[in-house]
């Protein structure tokens, strides 16, 4: 732990940040990550050109992430309760547990009500695949996959790096993850410019993703589900191009007994992706089950932090 906080303090601040997120949700106006996205776009437009795109991408990442991380470190180092409170505030601003629920459960409700047009619209807001002609199974699959993967990106990775480095760690991770989402494409414009952002995000996500995958295994509701989740992780994850999304989504799909992955439409073309999990195709009710798995994993991580804190206080 590099944050300078005691383990009891870390555990208490983790709980405070999660509770703030569940109570308040995302800031409706002037969200810091939206502002950061605008800053990243400004930097990208000025640096993403000519043949030196890789090194310009490295410079762009440094300019976008390091000054804000340094500012977070300075705020958290201020004396008294203000500095301590800044840790919790930065964690709250960095996680998106309630946001996952608010963006995905309405899709399940629309599907349950037979409102396919609304379900297609809501799903299009959270995934990059085409949804204009998607079926109920396609939409349920997209939402479940998004929940499982973003459980790591929007929640567990942030909690992990907060435990390592407090508020500045949470800020570093979320900004790096946001740049990967913005620049980490393998197309002509971002293949070289976004490579550094993608590789840095892979490195920061490596441990949290595997802890998330292990948590999904442990929280499968049955022993057979735990074995299935473990087997899916070990056999299916290597086929995915992302070294971190594969373990997270395959173990989560296995834990839920769902057959995810497979065909999806991007830019009008059908892309055959490797399989995820094993079992039945996703239905509307499975979106709620995926959300429940993410929520239980959050509770597990908070409980583990509390146990470590309890042990540290008696050491």
UniProtKB/TrEMBL annotation:
Pathway noted in the entry: Cofactor biosynthesis; adenosylcobalamin biosynthesis
Keyword terms of this UniProt record: Cell membrane, Cobalamin biosynthesis, Membrane, Transmembrane, Transmembrane helix
Repressor listed as a keyword: no
Transmembrane segments: 6-24, 54-75, 293-312
Topological type in the membrane: Multi-pass membrane protein
InterPro entries, A to Z: Cobalamin_biosynth_CobD/CbiB (IPR004485)
Chief localisation class: membrane
Top-rank taxon, per record: Bacteria
Compartments in which it is found: Cell membrane
Signal peptide (from-to): none
Purpose: Converts cobyric acid to cobinamide by the addition of aminopropanol on the F carboxylic group.
Matches recorded under HAMAP family: CobD_CbiB
Protein name: Cobalamin biosynthesis protein CobD
UniProt source species: [Empedobacter] haloabium
Gene that encodes the chain: cbiB
């Amino acid at each position: 732990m590099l944050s300078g906080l005691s383990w009891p303090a870390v555990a208490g601040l983790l709980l405070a940040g999660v509770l703030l997120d569940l109570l308040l949700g995302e800031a409706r106006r002037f969200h810091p990550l939206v502002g950061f996205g605008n800053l990243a776009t400004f930097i990208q437009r000025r640096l993403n050109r000519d043949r030196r795109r890789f090194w310009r991408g490295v410079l762009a990442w440094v300019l976008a992430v390091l000054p804000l991380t340094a500012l977070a470190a300075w705020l958290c180092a201020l004396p008294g309760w203000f500095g301590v409170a800044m840790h919790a505030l930065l964690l709250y601003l960095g996680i998106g547990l309630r946001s996952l629920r608010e963006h995905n459960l309405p899709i399940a409700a629309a599907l349950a009500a037979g409102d396919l047009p609304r379900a297609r619209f809501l799903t299009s807001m959270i995934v990059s695949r085409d949804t204009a002609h998607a079926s109920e199974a396609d939409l349920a699959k997209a939402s479940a996959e998004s929940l499982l993967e973003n459980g790591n990106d929007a929640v567990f990775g942030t909690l992990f790096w907060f435990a390592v480095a407090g508020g500045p760690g949470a800020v570093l991770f979320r900004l790096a993850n946001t740049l990967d989402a913005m620049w980490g494409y393998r197309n002509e414009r971002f293949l070289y410019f976004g490579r550094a952002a993608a590789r840095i995000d892979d490195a920061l996500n490596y441990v949290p993703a595997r802890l998330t995958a292990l948590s999904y295994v442990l929280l499968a509701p049955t022993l057979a589900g735990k074995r299935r989740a473990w087997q899916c992780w070990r056999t299916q994850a290597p086929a995915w191009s992302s070294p971190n999304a594969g373990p997270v989504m395959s173990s989560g799909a296995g834990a839920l007994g769902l057959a995810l992955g497979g065909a999806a439409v991007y830019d009008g073309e059908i892309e055959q992706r490797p399989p995820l999990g094993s079992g039945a195709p996703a239905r509307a009710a499975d979106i709620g089950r995926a959300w429940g798995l993410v929520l239980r994993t959050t509770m597990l991580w908070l409980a583990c932090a509390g146990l470590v804190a309890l042990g540290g206080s008696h050491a």
